[in-house]
Design a protein that fits this description.
Elements: H1 6-13, H2 17-23, E1 30-32, E2 35-38, E3 50-53, E4 58-61, E5 68-69, H3 71-79, H4 83-91, E6 116-121, H5 126-134, H6 139-143, E7 147-153, E8 156-164, E9 170-173, E10 179-181, E11 188-190, E12 194-201, H7 204-213, E13 221-225, H8 232-241, E14 246-250, H9 255-266, E15 271-273, H10 284-290
Parallel strand pairs: 12-13, 12-14, 14-15
Antiparallel strand pairs: 1-2, 2-3, 3-4, 4-5, 6-7, 7-8, 8-9, 9-10, 11-13
Length: about 300
């Protein structure tokens, strides 16, 4: 078989990833600096974690398997073809100039947009208090872990529950479906008094639900709240520093949660899948709301 010429490979690499994805009907959720941020086209996810660097024309999928590379690699993964076939297809690619559904000077009207945190207060607003109570979380417990965050978005002021991460940002929720992570996004960690095991939660409501379910004020074991499965890699140095012997994973009982669980196993961790505790429910919070008074020996 004739070898691919260097010129042909370089021609394929010149195809812009944004235009390649656009032709396949895949649009970014928003832009962050010089990067477009997508819900990954390689798997199902609800929190965008697939980044395309416009100046370097490379991608990085920070969730799932952590794939990254150039447009040829993306073509291989997305179309499930080999290197030669990807080069041949891309070398004859005829796309149209990339036209986002939103202005890069602002943001799209229907997606989470960059926002400015104005102030953080203790949890006290009646709307947020009712929201916490509606999720089965005692307000006194929630007040120890979340803040009332007031922020500005598109020139308007809003407020939401804010769960702080270790980098200084917040995971925001307001009870109307709004979910956002202020920058810098990242994980949240808590050091427990018992060594060895580490508990991993996908989101902060599941973490608070576990505390309420087991009638605890704080976790007994070291604990990581990912705030998104796309932050899995950020948890690895912390797990190493804690000399983790077993992960108790309280991830959502869905495809994304199972992929994260599998990833931890592939990385060599001894994993206890705690989603069996809330089998038949999407997550720990659904279990708490269905069985608010049930108590067992704490796993956290």
């Amino acid at each position: 078989m004739e070898r691919l010429s260097t010129d042909l490979i370089e021609q394929a690499k010149r195809v812009l990833i944004a235009e390649y994805l656009q032709k396949r009907g895949i649009s970014p959720a928003y832009q962050s600096g010089n990067e477009l941020v997508y819900c990954s086209p390689l798997r199902q996810e609800s929190t965008p974690s697939f980044f395309v660097n416009l100046s370097k024309n490379v991608f990085a999928d920070f969730g799932g398997e952590g794939d990254k590379g150039d447009v040829i690699r993306l073509c291989q993964l997305l179309e499930k073809i080999n290197f030669r076939t990807a080069v041949e297809r891309l070398s004859s690619f005829e796309g149209t100039p990339f036209t986002p559904a939103f202005s890069f000077s602002g943001s799209e009207p229907d997606s989470p947009s960059p926002l400015q945190v104005l102030e953080t207060l203790p949890l006290k607003h009646p709307v947020l208090v009712r929201y916490v109570e509606s999720r089965g979380i005692p307000v006194g417990l929630a007040s120890d872990y979340v803040k009332e965050v007031h922020y500005q978005r598109l020139g308007k002021r809003y407020f939401a529950l804010g769960f702080p991460n270790d980098a200084g940002g917040f995971a925001l929720r307001n009870g109307t479906g709004f979910k956002f992570q202020t920058r810098p996004a990242g994980i949240t960690t808590f050091e427990g008094s018992l060594p060895g095991k580490v508990c991993v939660f996908e989101g902060f409501f599941d973490f608070l639900s576990a505390l309420a379910y087991y009638d605890l004020d704080m976790p007994r074991y070291h604990t990581i709240v990912l705030n998104s499965t796309s932050h899995l890699r950020a948890a690895l140095p912390v797990l190493d520093s804690w000399n983790c012997t077993q992960l108790n994973c309280f991830l959502d009982d869905d495809r994304e949660g199972q992929r994260a669980l599998l990833r931890f196993k592939e990385l060599g961790f001894t994993v206890h899948d705690c989603s069996t505790l809330y089998k038949g429910h999407k997550d720990f919070n659904e279990l708490l709301m269905a069985h608010p008074t049930t108590r067992y020996v704490p796993l956290i």
